Amino acid sequence: MLQTRLHYIKRLINEGEHQHLDFKFEISDAAKIARSLVAFANTEGGTLLIGVNDNGSLIGIRSDEEYYMVKRAAQNYCKPEVFFTSKEWTLEGKKILEIKIPVSLKLPHRAPDTQGRYKVFVRAGDKNMLAAGIQIKVWKKQQAKEAVQITFNQLVKDLLALIESTPGLSVQELKARLNLSKYEAEELLSDLIVMRVIRMENMGKDFVFHRKE
């Protein structure tokens, strides 16, 4: 059993930080760790390994205080609260705390930024980033009681033809080519995403769009 656990944690560490994995040397700020919790919950879920340095070296946690700091962050600094599970592992004589955050069904979650203002964070690569406006629009429309309705007029046909002929265009590029305002472009794109006609892909600094396969 011990050998299996060692292989599991080492395998995670060897992956390095990425979209679904983050290392934390320690937890000293509940508001700050809340941003990681909501970013994972808002995106595709993920794992925090606490007691591991950014370079993958083992530091270990000092006490149960690390767990209670995460719990405090999830309950008091995540709106709505983020659900997580935890497990403590011993590796090379050091305790590592594993926190697993599933993708949430109560999107979006918010956490305080460095100024204390509650914002929506998402995971992009190995970073936590502010969510784009169009992503928040999609979440709100998906949770709305009224179904999205759209008329497939010439504008919609032109938009779909453009996305199909040139996949990977951003909101800025699409609005410029179709002579739309940012608001008009985001409203139209978010409607089509909710209707599962197109999909968006997070490229880190921007979202790009593709026809739904």
User: What is the fold-level CATH name, i.e. the topology of the largest domain?
Assistant: Methyltransferase, Cobalt-precorrin-4 Transmethylase, Domain 2
What characteristic shape results from the CA principal axes?
elongated
Helix content: 25-40%
CATH class of the largest domain: Alpha Beta
Task: Sketch the major β-sheet.
Answer: 4 strands, mixed
Mean pLDDT: 91
- The CATH architecture of the largest domain: 2-Layer Sandwich
* CATH homologous group name of the largest domain: Schlafen, AAA domain
Into which percentage range does the β-strand content fall? Answer: 15-25%
Radius of gyration using CA atoms only: 20 Å
| Overall tally of structural domains | 2
Element pattern in H and E: HEHEHEEEEEHHEHHEE
Q: What spatial order of strands do you see in the largest sheet?
A: 1-2-4-3
Q: State the helix count.
A: 7
* Uncertain ranges: 1-5
Could you tell me how far the N terminus lies from the C terminus, measured between alpha carbons in angstroms? 43 Å
Secondary-structure class: alpha+beta
